[in-house]
Amino acid sequence: MNRKPIYVEIPIEAEMEDLWKASQTPQLHEQWDVRFSSITYLPKRDERDPQDFSYKTKLGFGKSIEGWGRSVGTFNGKDGSRTSSLHFGTDQAISIISEGKGYWKYIKNEDSTITFLTQYDYKTRFGKFGTLVDTYFFRPLIGWGTALSFDVLKRWLEKGEAPRSQYSRLLSNWMLTLLFFFVWVYHGLVPKVVSMHPEEVAMAASLLPPNLEASSVVYAIGMSEILFGCLWLFFPKREWLFRLQILAFPILTISAIIADPSTLTHPFSPLTFNSSLLVLSVIGLMMSRDVPSARSCKRKR
Q1: Are 223 and 230 spatial neighbours (Cβ–Cβ below 8 Å)?
Q2: E strands within 77-96?
Q3: Which residue from 7, 72, 164, 251 puts its CA 20 to 30 A from 39's CA?
Q4: Cα–Cα distance list, 280 to 25, 89, 173, 188, 227 (Å)
Q5: Max Cα distance, the chain (Å)
Q6: How high does pLDDT run on average in the chain?
């Protein structure tokens, strides 16, 4: 099976020395690169020797993968460009990666930006099974992680925002995404499509003209809510989904109260429930305007 090397490229507006330091200093590198939890340079016998290092990647539940690496040399081009070549691997049997090689390149552009790019490839364990897992799951995942990390580095150098803050905002954004996916799909599937709850039908009937069948409308609304919930996972511009919800939740709240004013006294009133979702939508909109993304990078040479 022919697997392409991982390639990631991004322009960064920064000084060459700042970018070099942020990517070549272990204490700085481990802050923005989501692939590594820690990186440690090992002592060298001679300054001319390649730089050996060790790395650790935490998997969760107390598990981690530790590996080795070697920076086999750097090259400074006449145009000011730089290259850093790497040889890396791990002896831990749990890791799908056994050994790999790659490079980072720093290319000065005429517009005062630096094109920061990487290309690397690796050998896998576990035979054909490992090849399949790598091709359809791990390689896309680590490629995405590389691209996301490059965008975090870019924002750090250009805007001064620490990587930890960026990743916290990204995590919060994804938590809201999964929450709204669950809320819309659940409320569309369970009370409307599956059980056709009597209260849902009664509320629809009170708002509809007599010639429309309330149960059919409830079913259609339920399917629409399920589809809208799925958009939260697949639609890339979630900012528009947050905007739509900010408009929709007040309308849904008012409609529910008009249809059945007694809901204001229910334990789970649509007033408090939808108000909470409205506030979360506003918070999500504010965060979604500046979230690091792997889509900011070029992924093919």
Answers
A1: no
A2: 82-89
A3: 7
A4: 38, 43, 10, 20, 20
A5: 89
A6: 92
What pLDDT, in 10s, does the model give residues 34-87?
A: 999 999 999 988 877 888 999 999 988 888 999 999 987 677 777 788 999 999
The two tokens of residue 279 are 């506030």
CB-CB contact of 10 with 296 (8 Å): yes
195: exposed, middle or buried (Cβ count in 10 Å: 0-12, 13-18, 19+)? exposed
Q: Can you tell me the distance from the alpha carbon of 147 to that of 6, in angstroms, rounded to the nearest whole number? A: 10
How would you classify the pairing of strands 82-89 and 38-41? Answer: unpaired
In whole angstroms, give the CA distance from residue 272 to residue 124. Answer: 52
pTM score above 0.90: no
Residue with tokens 């970018």: 19
Phi, psi torsion values for 203, nearest 5 degrees: -65, -40
> Residue 129, CB half-sphere, CA atoms under 13 Å: how many?
3
| Neighbouring-strand partners of residue 76 | 82
CA distance 104 to 72: 12
**Token pair of 214, please?**
């309330």
Is the Cβ–Cβ distance between 153 and 31 less than 8 Å?
no
Cβ-contact 293, 178 below 8 angstroms = no
Question: What is the distance between the alpha carbons of residues 38 and 4, in angstroms, rounded to a whole number?
Answer: 27
φ, ψ (nearest 5 deg) of residue 106:
-120, 110
| The 51-60 sheet, strands edge to edge | 6-12, 114-124, 97-108, 82-89, 63-76, 51-60, 38-41
Closest by CA position to 301, among listed 123, 121, 117, 161: 117
Distance CA 51, CA 258 (A): 71
Which residues contact residue 87 at a Cβ distance below 8 angstroms, ignoring those fewer than 6 apart?
69, 70, 72, 99, 100, 101
